[in-house]
């Protein structure tokens, strides 16, 4: 089968045309749009505006800052949880229970928080009975971060769990027998040995956090602007596709930087 | 750990519980009632969108499974490692790209081609972003495959088509199915890409919930999510049964 060129072409054509039309051309179009103005002339004005205007750059930093917070919180929750999970008896069942919520439509889960956090919602009722009074929980920075953490949590937890699970239990036993405190075992053994899982977790949480845009409208009440919501704004509302494409290029650039810093280094064992 | 579990399930349980609320908002309790389920089944627009969403998911996953498998067969036949790696990195572009950028770049593509936005543009987009995941599921299986059987068949005079349909496809079938299922969940869960490439006439569940949620809470959506949750539970259960069954069969035949 391998030497027949006609058979090879039969397999190659659909796949290569897909690569050309839906991978290479869209990126090229995005770059082209970002480098042109409304008259269709080639220009760097969009990027110049991005850097010099007092709107875009602070917005981008803000978005990165939020994504960092979201990533940090999911990590702080996920790392101990993944460690505990790896020592539980019915691991498969627990794992299934963590994966199951990811099967529910993201929009439905987001929608649930509209009810949970609303003025007369469950959380506020709880606050009221505890004597804290009711608060405006929706449409602010905190609710945005909270719901984002909720949505991204499984994507941090699962890769970390997978890499912790691969650690040879004998190593952990040895460290205990040699008198290491549990904290030291965790920070000096489990953490470095699961670093690849942590890196993929960071990738899986940080990049989507930069581009979340339905959360900023539904939960953040437009008080939070991410790169994603800025793109949506330019494409749907103001119809300035050139600036929107410029922001999209910046987002791709941010993604590439993240991938670079979280790549797997060497194959140390 | 337990706290994480509770946190993960509170919103879902909350949605399900309130779907039985006799009142109209997600607070207070107007007594147990099925009224929102009745509303749901009377809402033909929402039911049509639900049906469209499933048709879209099944057809895009099927086509993506086909093209992805064909692509994997092609990549498997490549001898040059450098070419293979180039193809693999191009393959992964859509997997790692933020969905917003995929959405807008497809929107530009369709607009420039003069393609009208609607079911077909959404279908094409879903196929496009599902192909790489199918390929990544199928390719490792092809590489692991024992080639002696293929060689033996060739020596015995089997035609290429016969080898493919009798040996290769049955061997990689489980990974094609896994790719299909993943593509299915990608399609069902997608919001951002669909949001950009859909026109006025066509809507999927995610986009519909987004526009309804912007207008406020309606317990009909709760009833819908309760049903969706039940369906996913069933699917997980079916998948669990399927894997334990195939495991058992594999062990018996070995």
Automatic annotation (TrEMBL), chain A:
Presence of keyword Glycosyltransferase: no
Transmembrane segments: 12-32, 64-86, 93-117, 137-158, 201-221, 241-261
SUPFAM superfamilies according to UniProt: MetI-like
Keywords linked to the UniProt accession: Cell membrane, Membrane, Transmembrane, Transmembrane helix, Transport
Gene3D superfamilies: MetI-like
Main localisation: membrane
Compartments in which it is found: Cell membrane
Residues annotated as domain ABC transmembrane type-1: 60-262
Topological relation to the membrane, as annotated: Multi-pass membrane protein
Key word Nucleus present: no
One Pfam family cited in the UniProt record for this chain: BPD_transp_1
InterPro entries assigned: MetI-like, MetI-like_sf
PANTHER family noted in UniProt: INNER MEMBRANE ABC TRANSPORTER PERMEASE PROTEIN YDCU-RELATED (PTHR42929:SF1), INNER MEMBRANE ABC TRANSPORTER PERMEASE PROTEIN YDCU-RELATED-RELATED (PTHR42929)
Protein family according to the UniProt entry: Belongs to the binding-protein-dependent transport system permease family. CysTW subfamily.
Protein name per the record: Spermidine/putrescine transport system permease protein PotB
The species this protein was found in: Periweissella ghanensis
Gene for this chain: potB_1
Automatic annotation (TrEMBL), chain B:
Transmembrane regions: 7-29, 49-75, 87-113, 119-142, 163-185, 223-242
Keyword Disulfide bond: no
SUPFAM superfamilies attached to this UniProt entry: MetI-like
UniProt keyword annotations, A-Z: Cell membrane, Membrane, Transmembrane, Transmembrane helix, Transport
Pfam families on file: BPD_transp_1
Membrane topology: Multi-pass membrane protein
Compartments, record wording: Cell membrane
PROSITE patterns: ABC_TM1
Keyword DNA-binding on entry: no
Residues in ABC transmembrane type-1 domain copies: 50-239
InterPro entries linked: Bact_Polyamine_Transport, MetI-like, MetI-like_sf
Chief localization: membrane
The family this protein is said to belong to: Belongs to the binding-protein-dependent transport system permease family. CysTW subfamily.
Protein name: ABC transmembrane type-1 domain-containing protein
Organism, scientific name: Periweissella ghanensis
């Amino acid at each position: 089968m391998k030497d027949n060129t006609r058979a090879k072409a039969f397999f190659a054509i659909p796949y290569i045309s897909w690569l050309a039309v839906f991978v290479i051309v869209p990126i090229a179009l995005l770059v082209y749009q970002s480098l042109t103005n409304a008259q269709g002339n080639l220009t760097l004005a969009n990027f110049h505006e991005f850097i010099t205007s007092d709107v875009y750059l602070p917005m981008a930093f803000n978005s990165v800052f939020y994504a960092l917070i979201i990533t940090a919180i999911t990590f702080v929750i996920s790392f101990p949880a993944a460690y505990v999970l790896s020592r539980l008896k019915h691991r498969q069942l627990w794992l299934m229970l963590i994966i199951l919520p990811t099967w529910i439509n993201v929009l439905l889960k987001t929608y649930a928080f509209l009810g949970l956090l609303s003025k007369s919602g469950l959380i506020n009722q709880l606050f009221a009975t505890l004597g804290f009074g009711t608060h405006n929980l929706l449409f602010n920075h905190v609710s945005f971060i909270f719901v984002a953490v909720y949505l991204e949590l499984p994507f941090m937890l699962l890769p970390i769990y997978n890499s912790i699970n691969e650690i040879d239990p004998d190593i952990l036993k040895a460290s205990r027998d040699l008198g290491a405190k549990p904290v030291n075992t965790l920070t000096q053994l489990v953490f470095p040995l699961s670093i690849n899982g942590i890196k993929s977790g960071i990738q899986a949480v940080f990049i989507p956090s930069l581009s979340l845009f339905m959360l900023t409208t539904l939960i953040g009440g437009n008080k939070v602007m991410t790169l994603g919501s800025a793109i949506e704004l330019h494409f749907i509302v103001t119809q300035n596709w050139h600036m929107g494409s410029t922001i999209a290029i910046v987002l791709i650039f941010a993604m590439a930087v993240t991938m670079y810093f979280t790549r797997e280094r060497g194959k140390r064992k | 750990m337990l706290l994480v579990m509770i946190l993960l399930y509170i919103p879902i349980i909350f949605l399900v519980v309130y779907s039985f609320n006799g009142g109209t908002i997600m607070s207070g309790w107007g007594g147990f009632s099925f009224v929102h389920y009745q509303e749901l089944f009377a809402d033909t627009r929402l039911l049509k969108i639900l049906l469209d969403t499933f048709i879209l998911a099944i057809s895009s996953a099927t086509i993506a499974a086909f093209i992805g498998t064909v692509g994997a067969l092609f990549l498997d036949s490549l001898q040059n490692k450098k070419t293979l790696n180039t193809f693999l990195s191009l393959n992964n572009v859509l997997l790692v790209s933020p969905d917003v950028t995929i959405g807008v770049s497809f929107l530009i593509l369709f607009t420039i081609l003069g393609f009208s936005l609607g079911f077909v543009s959404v279908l094409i987009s879903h196929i496009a972003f599902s192909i790489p995941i199918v390929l990544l599921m199928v390719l490792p299986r092809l590489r692991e495959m024992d080639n002696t059987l293929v060689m033996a068949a060739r020596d015995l005079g089997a035609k290429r088509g016969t080898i493919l349909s009798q040996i290769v496809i049955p061997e990689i079938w489980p990974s094609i199915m896994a790719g299909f299922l993943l593509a299915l969940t990608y399609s069902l869960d997608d919001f951002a890409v669909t949001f950009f490439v859909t026109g006025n006439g066509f809507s999927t569940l995610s986009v519909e919930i987004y526009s309804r949620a912007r207008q406020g809470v309606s317990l009909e959506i709760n009833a819908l999510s309760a049903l969706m949750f039940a369906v996913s539970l069933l699917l997980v259960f079916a998948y669990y049964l399927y894997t334990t069954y195939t495991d058992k069969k594999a062990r018996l035949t070995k």
